[in-house]
Every structure is written in C-alpha cells, then in structure tokens.
Amino acid sequence: MNLSDIGPVVLVGAGKMGLALARGWIAGGLLPDRLVLCDPNPSEFATAFAADHGIRLLPSPIGVLTQVLVLAVKPQVIYDVMAEIQPVVGSYTLVLSIAAGIPLIGLSEGLQTERVVRAMPNTPAQIGRGISGAVGLKITDGDRQVADALLKAAGQVLWFDDESKIDAVTAVSGSGPAYVFYLVEALAAAAQKQGLDEEQAMILARATVTGAGALMDADPTPASTLRENVTSPKGTTYAALQVLMGPTGFAPLLDQAVDAARRRSEELGRA
Predict the structure, then answer these.
(1) Does residue 171 lie within any of the structural domains?
(2) Residue 251: CB partners within 8 Å, gap ≥ 6?
(3) In terms of domains, do 94 and 223 share one?
(4) Residue 198 has what pLDDT?
(5) Are residues 13 and 141 in the same domain?
(6) 150 and 200 fall within a common domain
(7) 270: Cβ–Cβ under 8 A, 6 or more apart, which residues?
(8) Is residue 107 within 8 Å of 97, Cβ to Cβ?
(9) What integer pLDDT is reported at residue 271 of this predicted model?
(10) What phi and psi values does residue 134 have, to the nearest 5 degrees?
(11) Beta strand 68-71 with 9-12: parallel, antiparallel or unpaired?
C-alpha cells in the first residue's frame, strides 16, 4: 500500500518519536493535507515541521475527521488522553498506538473500538533505520496493510500473533538503542583509563560501534561468526572476551537488563 493512499492521519503527540514517524510519512509520500499533528504544547521542532510542510498543528483532534489515529503519547497519560479524544474515533477509524506497555484491551476499551494495532518502534526511526514490533488481533487485512505502511516509513516491521511478545520487543529493540549508547559511554570511559584523552576515547568508541553495526548490516553472516572472525586464538580480543563472556560478564547482565525492561513494560500496562 502506498502512503499517498492513506489518510486523514491524525497524530496525537508530536514528540521525538511522533515527529520521527511523521517525517518518514511525508518523505514516503503521505500527502501533507492528509496529516494532522495534535499536541497541546508543541515543541519548536513540531511547530517548524508543520510550518515547513503545510501541515495542520492543533491542540486537540476534536472535530477532525480521523481515518487513522496514531497515539504517540507517554503511557503515564494515555488513559486521560483517550478519555478526551474518544469522540473522534468512529467505525471508520483505525487506531495505531506506540505507547509502551499499553495493552490492546486497554486501548480498545479506552477508545471504544476493536480496530487497534499496538506497536513499538525505536529511536533509529528518526533516520529511517528503526524497527517496530506490531500486533493487531481484531483488525482486517486492510487495516494491517495501512499500519504496516505507516510503520515501514520508519524502518523494518515484525508482526506478532501473540501480544505478550510486544513487551519483549519493548525490552529488546524499543529500549535497546539506549543499551548501545551506554556501551559507547562505557567503552570510552575504559579507553580513558588506558591513557587516552576524553575526545580520543569517544571518537574511537563511537566509530567502533557504528562501524561494527554498519558491517553487520552489510554482511548477513551471523553475529557469532563475525565475532569469531575478529578473535585470533589467544590474541587481544580473545583476552577481552574471556572477561565479557565469563559467568558474570556481558550476557547475564544484559539478560537481567532486558528482563527488567520487560517487567516494567508489563507494569505500565497494569497501571
């Protein structure tokens, strides 16, 4: 499905992730007059984006025809937001939510519709390199095509038949960019302890992580094989991996971190 065939799309919440999606939609062919941004306190970036593309920017969607409603607000306020905007949702409206942890049943009850898709994109969507997990248990094939087209404007999309998997998606890819950014911070800090200055350490750490990511993106070889290719027997990388792959190393720490994020996603859904 082409984005030019979709709309009107009403985006509620013009924060970083909402704007990242909106930029992808416009770049992908969604017509500006078919997009409405709604935010009671828009940032200067949202205001500038709307002005640059001739997009309506409103404090509320009340009174606006809504073919597709995209909820990009924080989970802590989403139930209040849904209570306010429910009147714009009709039998013709598809709802797409990217609020972490909020289950389909909560969205369905809050907006009084079963045409709901729950998705979790991540911040690389800002440059079109994101990945989203999505689930919609009571939607039509046409609804899925629309949601898929909107999410693909920001990167890859994985669809699930089991909603509980979305909490795991949130913990892995939704929160995952922060884990990678922290890896860069930690690697740079370790470099400074080895005598490099702060600027040198950060340049090396950033370039190493982004370069390794680009190599993995370009080469379909399994990550484990790519790791082995860098590791000479008894060499420097081998010595480091004995620490990172030890019983208290990187894998168990990451397992704990992902589990904590998944449990917090579930807690948000019960709040």
Answers:
(1) no
(2) 245
(3) no
(4) 98
(5) yes
(6) no
(7) none
(8) yes
(9) 67
(10) -140, 150
(11) parallel
Which domain range does residue 215 map to? 176-270
Q: What is the bridge-based pairing of β-strands 68-71 and 94-97?
A: parallel
**CATH code where residue 192 lies:** 1.10.3730.10
Q: Which residues of the chain have pLDDT under 70?
A: 271
Instruction: Please report the pLDDT score of residue 86 as a whole number.
Output: 96
| Residues 121 and 16 sit within 8 Å (Cβ to Cβ) | no
Distances in Å between the Cα of 262 and the Cα atoms of 40, 96, 98, 123, 166 are: 30, 21, 15, 18, 9
Here the tokens at position 177 are: 């960019």
Q: What is the pLDDT of residue 1?
A: 84
Domain count, the chain: 2
215-255 pLDDT tens trace: 999 999 999 999 999 999 999 999 999 999 999 999 999 99
Cα within 13 Å of Cα(265), Cβ side: 27
My answer on whether 156 and 187 are in the same domain is no
pTM of the model: 0.90
Residue 58 lies in a domain: yes
Looking at the structure, do residues 142 and 187 belong to the same domain, yes or no?
no
**Residue 168: inside a domain, yes or no?**
no
User: Which residues have C-beta within 8 Å of that of residue 19, sequence separation ≥ 6?
Assistant: 45, 46, 49
Between CA 209 and CA 128 the distance in angstroms is 19
Task: Please state whether the peptide bond connecting residue 8 to the residue before it is cis, i.e. omega within 30 degrees of 0.
Answer: yes
Amino acid at 221: T
Evaluated on CA atoms 147, 148, 149, 154, the torsion sign reads positive
User: Which residue is it, tokens 């809050």?
Assistant: 110
Compute the C-alpha angle 84/11/88, nearest 5°: 40
Cα separation of 259 and 271, whole Å? 18
Please spell the DSSP secondary structure of 5-62, one letter per residue: G---EEEE--SHHHHHHHHHHHHHT--GGGEEEE-SS--HHHHHHHHHHT-EEES--T
Closest CA to 30 of 10, 16, 48, 47: 10
